[in-house]
Amino acid sequence: MAQRFYTTLYFRVLVAIALGIALGAALPETGAKMQVLADIFINLVKTTIAPLIFCTVVHGIASMTNMKSVGKAGGLALLYFEVMSTVALFIGLIVVNIVRPGDGLVLDSTIDVAKVAKYTATSP
To answer: Cα(24)–Cα(28) distance, rounded to whole angstroms?
Structure first.
């Protein structure tokens, strides 16, 4: 029997995200007051990530039939990590050279600190 789409977890998460966006847009004060719930949720997710990954790895290793397959999986994981890290490094270098963040930023020691303090004191 096929599961209806509205009973799936990902659909409910997407609905909750949409409701959160709508609440933040319609009633920003109420949305800001609900920040505590968001912090609790994020902390719960952070708390469960490490044991979940540990249990997944232990179960995967324990379910393998011989040590050769364990070593092969570990080697492939290490190779994948190294290759993807290198790809990410090259993508970062290309983006930095194209976008050039910080280009034109004048960092001069002759900045008037009193004017900066006055400007930052008036900002919300």
So the answer is: 5
Is residue 64 within 8 A of residue 73, CB to CB? The reply is yes
And the tokens for 75?
């080697």
Q: How far apart are CA 32 and CA 24, in angstroms?
A: 8
Taking residues 49-62, report their average pLDDT.
90
Distances (CA, A) of 71 to 49, 53, 77: 24, 18, 10
pLDDT in tens, 36-49: 998 998 999 999 99
DSSP collapsed to 3 states, the chain = CCCCHHHCHHHHHHHHHHHHHHHHHHCHHHHHHCHHHHHHHHHHHHHHHHHHHHHHHHHHHHCCCCHHHHHHHHHHHHHHHHHHHHHHHHHHHHHHHHHCCCCCCCCCCCCCHHHHHHHHHHCC
Reported pTM? 0.46
What is the Cα–Cα distance from 101 to 95, expressed in whole angstroms?
9
